[in-house]
Each structure stands twice: as C-alpha cells, then as structure tokens.
Design goal:
The chain has 272 residues and is α/β, with parallel strands linked by helices. The protein has eight helices and seven strands. It has a single domain, classed as 3-Layer(aba) Sandwich (Rossmann fold), CATH 3.40.50.720. Helix 3 packs parallel to helix 4. Bound molecules: nicotinamide-adenine-dinucleotide.
Amino acid sequence: MPTSAASPSLGRVLLTGAAGGLGRQLRTRLRGRTTLLRVSDVVAMDPAQEGEEVVQCALEDRAAVLKLLEGMATVVHLGGISTEQPFDDIVQANIIGVYNVYEAARKHGVRRIVFASSNHVTGYYRQDEVIDPTMPVRPDGHYGISKAFGENLSRFYFDRYGIETVCVRIGSSFPEPKDRRMLATWLSFDDLERLVVASLTAPIVGHTIAYGMSDNTTTWWDNTPARHLGYRPQDSSEPFRAAREAAQPVVDVTDPAAIYQAGGFVRMGPFE
Ligand SMILES: NC(=O)c1ccc[n+]([C@@H]2O[C@H](COP(=O)([O-])OP(=O)(O)OC[C@H]3O[C@@H](n4cnc5c(N)ncnc54)[C@H](O)[C@@H]3O)[C@@H](O)[C@H]2O)c1
C-alpha cells in the first residue's frame, strides 16, 4: 500500500517517464500529495485527473522540455531508455534528454531533481563486494554510461548553479524479485515511494547518490553515505528467497552474469 497520505504537500512536481513501469506507480502514489503533478512521456498516457497535467513530449526536444519544466519546483526524472540499447538511441533519450532537463531546470529556477540513475553505473563491481556511492563508477554498458553521465551532469549543476539532486541508483524495482540476483537488488514499489518522497522532502540534500534497494538480507550496497535522506526501507526480498533459489538451484560461478553485479547486462551488445 502507498505510504502515509498525511505528509506535507510535495508542491509542484514534474514526473517524467510517467507511462513507464515506475512512472505509473509513482503517478498514482504522488497524486493527491502535490499542489500540481505534471506528468510527461514520449508515448500517450492516461488522461489527466484532478490536480494533474499531462504533457506528451520527447526528452530530446529541447524547446519542448524547456516548456515542460516551466513553473515546477521539483522534478522526478524517470524518463529515458531503461535497458541496454544501441548507443545512438541511448544518446538521444538519456544523454541529450538529461541535459535538456537540467538546462530547463536552470532557466526556470527548479530547486531539486530526483534522478533515476541505475545500479548499472557500478555494474562491473563483483557480487562478492559491498560498495558504497562514494566509490568510482564502473558502468557495464551504454546504458550505465548514460546514467553515469547524468550523475556527473547533476553534480555540475549543483556545484555551479545550486540545483540539488538525489541520484537514485535503482536496483530492480518490480512487484517481486524475479531471480536470485534480485534477492540482492530488489526495491519494492512501497520502498521506491518512500525513497522518492524522502529525496523530495529532506531539508538539504546537496548532491546525493543513493542505491535504490529494499532492506534485503543479501546486499552489495552500503547506503551509509545517503542516510541523511532519512530513507528507511521497510520491505525485504527474504520472503521470496526459497522460491527464487529453488527455481535456480545451481549458480555457475564462472558465468560473468554471476560474477558481476550487472548480472545479464554483461552479455548484452555489441549491437553492430
Ligand atoms: N525498474 C527498475 O528496476 C529500474 C532499475 C534501474 C533504473 N531504472 C530507471 O528508472 C526509470 C524508470 O524505469 P522503468 O522501469 O519505469 O522504465 P520504463 O522503460 O518502463 O519507463 C521509461 C519511460 O521513459 C519513456 N521514454 C523513453 N524514451 C523517452 C524519450 N526519448 N523521451 C521521453 N520519454 C521517453 C518511455 O516511453 C517509458 O514510458 C528509468 O530511467 C530507468 O532507467 C529502473
């Protein structure tokens, strides 16, 4: 169930990627907690409900994105390509797209952005390591590189212009963990909501990087450097462990997908 509806208003929030898996979750959960919720995607979305505006536009369309951010106090930026794809596609949506969002934020005086980054920014760390957000990035493909670009871009916009960002390196946010890897990387939808709301409401975040994960027993990530957000996950992958391990009883420890935190992403590409 969505968390408390009694918290203070989140103000005027833009949600990009609103037609996607997580966008649809957050649209429902943020609705009613904002002064205005403007939702956007490149594809068609459900019609606007009370307190909402719906704007269809491509992130690579700079003029449209400039208009999109007008009057917004904060942005939850989920829009973009969310899997490993050819570089030319990733460049448009994730690199030019995120630049357009930050430029529009600068021009309109937006004060804070929650940026949906990814665990694939650090996918080439091993599954027998526990890392934290202060360690160097090790992207596992075009997608991870594009999210690392977004993280660096947002740091620049904080250092130069004071626009605060929380980069959430989302693990695997689905209704349930689908495989053994997701026992470590799972982020429940309720915990996603908690993390996004904490990122929007913490008084000071500066430029913060946090891993988006539930309170899983197995973990590769230490979120201590982001504890000032006040995010406390309340779900865990543990109830799914027996079923996921039964479905995959043997782990091939020579398989790169079992060695690296990226999992199967290490097998994707090249595309030419
Ligand atoms: N779901 C996860 O477990 C997970 C994990 C790590 C990171 N993330 C990140 O969180 C965000 C949301 O993830 P999701 O699972 O909902 O992904 P999704 O693919 O379901 O949604 C992404 C949305 O972005 C839109 N989009 C794509 N290209 C666009 C463009 N050029 N202009 C405007 N909109 C465009 C798509 O139409 C889609 O609705 C993404 O940025 C993704 O990279 C998600």
